[in-house]
Amino acid sequence: MSDAPFTVAIDGPAAAGKGTISRAIAAHFGFAHLDTGLLYRAVGALVLDGAEPIAAAQALDPRALEDARLRTAEVAQAASRVAVIPEVRAALLDFQRAFARRPGGAVLDGRDICTVIYPDAEAQLFVTASAEVRAARRWKELREKGDTRTLADVLADVQARDARDSERDAAPMRPADGAKLLDTSKMSIEEAVDAAIAHVEAKGAVLRG
């Protein structure tokens, strides 16, 4: 890949593996990476602290993305709630689009990168897995952190978040028409990463050809 802008857009539900895949793609090609969900998690954390959602999004400081709380389940739920607010999404839009076209390539992962943030991305993927598989993955992560919730509780949270993300009026989560569908339910992370990298390489080859 050259220093020219090249955007890899990756969408999908929680715990499907898109974050791991995105970071692996960025490392493989030397691209910058943005987990756009952190933007919404940062706003959600501020709301939990008492801030008003729209004002928090409009005044978001990039340093807020370093908050250690952003990976907690409580903040994840808050992020999903603020993400349905159109004014919050609009406030975060310009930052994401500018990042997508930075020189040298960029990988962005989230819920609406291919459909709203940058539909013209050179490589597009929709990474998914069954709700049961994703809940099991998240439950294992939480147990390792000392969380005592049951697998059934985590599955209910995953299903509720899926419903909010896919049924919201503002930029609902859905596969873009041109996105490669990557179902990781029965794949190892190595297999998923290899498939994603192959897709990006193929798109880059088409552009160079």
Description:
The chain is an alpha/beta fold. It has a single domain (7-204), classed as Rossmann fold. Helix content is 53%, strand content 11%. The protein has a five-stranded parallel β-sheet, sandwiched between helices. The protein is globular and about 45 Å long. The model has no long low-confidence stretch (mean pLDDT 92).
Oligomeric organization of the protein chains: single chain
Cα-to-Cα separation, first versus last residue: 12 Å
Spans of at least 5 consecutive residues with low confidence: none
CATH class equals Alpha Beta
- Report the sheet-strand fraction: 5-15%
The average pLDDT score comes to 92
List keywords for this structure.
single chain, 209 residues, alpha/beta, Rossmann fold
Quick summary of this structure?
This protein is an alpha/beta fold and 209 residues long. It contains 9 helices and 5 strands; from the N terminus they run βαβααααβαβααβα.
What is the fold's blueprint, element by element?
Blueprint: E1 7-11, H1 18-29, E2 32-35, H2 37-48, H3 53-58, H4 73-82, H5 86-100, E3 106-110, H6 113-117, E4 123-128, H7 131-144, H8 151-167, E5 180-183, H9 189-208
Parallel strand pairs: 1-3, 1-4, 2-3, 4-5
Helix pairs in contact: 1-9, 2-4, 7-8
